[in-house]
Design brief:
It is a single chain. The protein contains five helices and twelve strands. It has helices spanning 2-15, 24-30, 53-58, 64-71, 140-149, and strands at 21-23, 34-39, 46-51, 77-86, 92-100, 103-115, 118-125, 155-156, 168-174, 179-191, 194-201, 207-212. The protein is elongated. The strands form two sheets. Strands 1-2-3-7-6-5-4 form a seven-stranded antiparallel sheet. Strands 8, 9, 10, 11 and 12 form a five-stranded antiparallel sheet that branches. The chain has 219 residues and is an alpha+beta fold.
């Protein structure tokens, strides 16, 4: 907690100068062992940092635990590895998903980029607000039924294959000031053709948003 308060104090002080990109001693005071740091202009959170030459030489490890410490995440947040791949040059890139109380926060996380086989930089987006609850008051079966009822369809993809019946994933939807605990359900209708992610509040049962997964191209 002391480290988080120190980082927050430094971030607020540099924000007062209306600057966003920091190098040298300034960057190192925000994130130890770096030569460049960029802060989100709205939140003041670290959205990018580049390790210093001395950190590169020492082979600094940037796993979820180290990332959490460097960007000042509170105790109830953590970063878990979600993906790893190599680019055309053979350099690794690792993606870490942000979790709050072991529940994923959609659209939030950090990526670590390697150079010459060593972690060299990282970028991403995080949130540090608290959530009112981590326990849903309605079941996944209830929200799936509700999500299906939103579609005026006569045929769904699982009608011929029960294995394709939708599941409800529990996650948080972030905003500037809060985390909303939601279920996310993938509904695939065939008649008429329609596919959407449906987000339903896990506490109130209200529909939070719907995102179409079918895109049409103009030629």
């Amino acid at each position: 907690m002391r480290g988080f308060i120190l980082i927050l104090t430094l971030v607020l002080s540099v924000l007062g100068s209306n600057a966003q990109l920091f190098t040298g001693r300034q960057s190192n005071s925000i994130v130890a062992g770096t030569q460049k740091v960029k802060l989100d202009e709205k939140t003041g959170f670290v959205e990018y940092f580049e390790l210093s030459s001395s950190s590169l030489k020492s082979g600094t490890v940037l796993d979820g635990t180290v990332l959490k410490q460097k960007i000042g995440l509170p105790a109830n947040y953590n970063l878990q590895i979600a993906d790893e791949h190599a680019d055309a040059q053979g350099e690794k890139h690792k993606k870490y998903q942000l979790y709050y109380n072991n529940i994923p926060v959609e659209g939030m996380g950090y990526s670590v980029h390697y150079k010459n086989g060593k972690a060299a930089s990282a970028n991403g987006k995080v949130i540090k607000t608290d959530a009112s609850s981590a326990t849903p008051t309605i079941s996944d079966a209830q929200v799936i039924t509700k999500a299906i009822s939103l579609f005026n369809s006569t045929q769904f993809i699982w009608d011929n294959d029960p294995a394709l019946y939708p599941e409800a994933s529990l996650l948080y939807i972030p905003s500037d000031s809060q985390l909303t605990l939601c279920y996310k359900i993938d509904i695939y209708a065939l008649q008429p053709l329609q596919r959407e992610y449906v987000y339903i509040d896990a506490l109130s049962g209200e529909v939070v948003k719907r995102i179409s997964r079918i895109h049409h191209a103009d030629y």
